[in-house]
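Same chain as my last thread, 82 residues:
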Amino acid sequence: MVYKKLAPEILPELKKQANKTGKKSARLHQTLTSDVGHPKLREHLASIVTLMKVSEDKDSFFEKVNLNHPDFNENYHIDFDE
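reply #2:
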């Protein structure tokens, strides 16, 4: 939910970088850059937490996240009938 929606192709690259360390317990956030990666992650997490706070239930939360932070490999679905 977090890394997949952060930037295009970021999740596979972070996993690749984490595997280079040789530690299976490597955390993905540790491979982000401090000048761009960490601030963007912090900003994204703040948005996710805000959406969580304003959601009535789990389904509402996922709907809001997908609307505000779509996956980069997916297209928006706009329902004009609503």
